[in-house]
Amino acid sequence: MINAVFIGGLTNGKIVYDYLKNNKFVNLCLTITYADDFKGARFVPFENDEFILKTGSVKNLIQRIKNIEPDVIFVAGWSEIIPAELLSVPKMGVIGFHPAKLPNDRGRSVLAWQIEDGYTETALTMLKYSDYPDGGEILAQEQIKIEESDYINNILDKVDEATYSIMRAYFPLLRQGLLKGRTQDLSQGNFRRLRGERDSLIDWNRSSKSIYDKIRAISHPYPGAFAELNGRKYRVWRSMVLKDFPLGKDVEYGTLVAKCYDNSLVVKSCDGFIRITEWEEA
Question: Distance between CA atoms of 277 and 25, rounded to whole angstroms?
């Protein structure tokens, strides 16, 4: 029997929690998750019981975790950096997940960056945490295809599916001490920064495909892309690339060419047109 601690939340965290909770070889001693009023995207409230603590941080719970003497700590769907003091506590390590083909795309907001940059595939990596961000031993990776029609919510669904697949396939090996990690070359790969509001503004002097990729990268459940048209600000959720449009061929990029019968907006880009099919005034 393995004594485990789980730290996390959101839909992917709930998948890991449920797997551990229902595994006959695991004694889930403590779960640390978000409070019921947490406002993050894809938040899933956990049930209430004496082994679940609902808080926003583990910093004040370090000694309590140490007292449990867990064999393993799992982390999923948790934005706070795990204190370095905890990394050496469980003998099997602190195990987490990162939605990228490590060593590429360490850091923050990685799925949004990948979609905006036109990636056609990524991966979910299960890794052992170290004091180097997203730099620990790689334990498993599952490929995730990014279709051109996928919006961020579709990819988050695929990450959830990959989370369950990795737990089901590799946890038994981890439990038996048969899962061997692969050390990352820390001189390889790249880091992504946390996206801010300026990253959400559409630059109409970009290709239609590039604008379309930005919109789908930060659509629901994220804040959406922002567009400035005719002195008004719009929040943009969905769009499509138009190869041709009968009006506005000679206007400047960023011009609102037409408002169509279905309430969609047609805007000139540097190489064609974008049809904004779902939007609201910001």
Answer: 50
Give helix 152-175 / helix 10-21 axis angle, nearest 10°: 30
Per-position b or e across 84-101, b if 16+ CB within 10 A of its CB: eebbebbebbbbbbbbbb
- The verdict on whether omega for the bond into residue 99 sits within 30 degrees of 0, i.e. cis, is no
Half-sphere exposure of 210 (CA within 13 A, CB side): 12
User: What's the residue count for the chain?
Assistant: 282
Is residue 31 within 8 Å of 52, Cβ to Cβ? yes
Give the predicted TM-score (pTM) of the model: 0.95
Query: 247 falls in which pLDDT band (50, 70, 90)?
Result: confident
Task: Say what the pLDDT of residue 19 is.
Answer: 98
- Rounded CA-CA distance 252/240 in Å is 19
